[in-house]
Amino acid sequence: MSRRSEGTNEFGRHLLSVADLDRQQATLVLDTAAQIEAALAGREVKKLPTLRGRTVVNLFFEDSTRTRISFELAAKRLSADVINFSAKGSSVSKGESLKDTALTLEAMGADAVVVRHSMSGAPHRLAQWVRGSVINAGDGTHEHPTQALLDAYTMRSRLGRLEGLRVTIVGDVLHSRVARSNVLLLSTLGADVTLVAPPTLLPVGVETWPVEVGFDLDASLPKADVVMMLRVQRERMAASYFPSPREYSRRYGLDATRMAMLADDAIVMHPGPMNRGMEIAAEVADSVRSTIVEQVRNGLSVRMAVLYLLLGGSEVSS
Ligand code: NCD
C-alpha cells in the first residue's frame, strides 16, 4: 500500500493479498482505522474531506451485500466520487472482457478500483492493466484482505491484543477466501490459529499453512479466545462434501450448548452472510458474545483506512 502523495515507498500501490503486508503495515492499517473512528465519533456529519476529487470504482462481478456497500460508504465518507459497477446490466453481459472493462474505467479516470471476482487472481491481472490502485474485495477462493483486516481490528478492539490470541476457524475452509486471508494475517500479527473442519473441506496442502488442524470442535472450544464460524459455501460445491446439512451442523455447527464451553470472555465471529441453523444457531448469532454486527461496523473504518493509505489523502484529522 502506498501514501503516494508523500512519495514514500512504505507501501505498494495495491492491496491484493494480506501477504503484501508485514506486521508494521498491517498494524498501521488497524491504527489508522482506530484514528478515523475516533475522528468521526460524535460528529454530526460523518464525513472527512480526505479524498475530495478522487474517483473510486466498485467493480463487482460476484454478488455481495456488505462488502460492496461498505466500500461505497467508506469512499463516500472520505468525500471521493464513487461509481458502482456490477456485471449484471453492463457490457460484461455482452461478453466484454475484464481487460476492456478495466481500460474503460481507467479512461474515465478511476484512481482506485475495488474488485470482486469469482476467479482467483483476477485482481492481480487487473493491477497489470490499470494505473490506479487495485483493492481485492474477494477473488474466488483465494483472498479477501479487507475482511481479514476488519476481523483483526474487531479482535483487537474486543480483546485488547492479537499477539498470542488463540483463534479457532471452523467449517468450510476449502472454499473460504476469508479463512485464507485470516490465517495469513493473523500469523503475521502473532496470533495462534487452529482450523477445525471436516477433512473434505480442508484444502490440499493445509499442512504447510501456519496453523494447527483439528477435527473435533468440542475439544478446541475451551481453549479458544475467538471462534470464527465460516459459511458453508454451497454455491461453490459441485459435489457433496458432507452427508447432510443436519449431520454437518451436529458435528461442526455452533449452538448454545457448544457456546457454553467457551471461556468467559471468548467471542464468536462470522463474516456473513450466515446460514442460520447450519454453521451457527440463531441464538449464538444474536448472543452477547457475537461480534457479527460489530464486524460490519468496523469494516467501514478499516476500508476507509485502506483507501486513505493507498490514495494518500490529506491528514485524517483535517
Ligand atoms: C464472505 C465472502 O464473500 O468472501 N463474505 C463477506 O465478504 N463478508 C464470506 C462468504 O461469502 O461466506
Show the helix and strand layout.
Elements: H1 23-40, E1 55-60, H2 66-77, E2 81-86, H3 98-107, E3 112-117, H4 122-129, E4 133-139, H5 145-159, E5 166-170, H6 177-188, E6 192-196, E7 212-214, H7 217-220, E8 226-229, H8 245-252, H9 256-259, E9 267-269, H10 282-285, H11 292-311
Helix pairs in contact: 1-5, 1-11, 2-11, 3-4, 5-6, 5-11
Bound molecules: N-carbamoyl-L-aspartate.
General description of the model:
The protein is of the alpha/beta class. 36% of the residues lie in helices and 14% in strands. The protein has two domains: 18-143 and 297-311, Aspartate/ornithine carbamoyltransferase (Rossmann fold, 3-Layer(aba) Sandwich); 145-294, Rossmann fold, CATH 3.40.50.1370. Helix 2 crosses helix 11 (292-311). It is globular, with a radius of gyration of 19 Å.
Biggest sheet, open or closed, and with what strands and sense? 5 strands, parallel
Radius of gyration: 19 Å
Oligomer: single chain
- What shape does the CA trace take? globular
Portion of residues in beta strands equals: 5-15%
Rounded mean pLDDT is 92
Instruction: Tell me the total number of β-strands.
Output: 9
Name the CATH class of the largest domain.
Answer: Alpha Beta
How do the SSEs run, as a string of H and E? HEHEHEHEHEHEEHEHHEHH
Q: State the distance separating the first and last CA atoms.
A: 21 Å
Strand arrangement within the widest β-sheet reads 7-6-5-8-9
Unreliable segments (pLDDT under 50, ≥5 consecutive)? 1-9
Instruction: Using the coordinates shown, work out and report the CATH topology of the largest domain.
Output: Rossmann fold
Bound molecules: N-carbamoyl-L-aspartate
CATH H-level superfamily of the largest domain: Aspartate/ornithine carbamoyltransferase
CATH architecture of the largest domain: 3-Layer(aba) Sandwich
Q: How many helices?
A: 11
Estimated structural class: alpha/beta
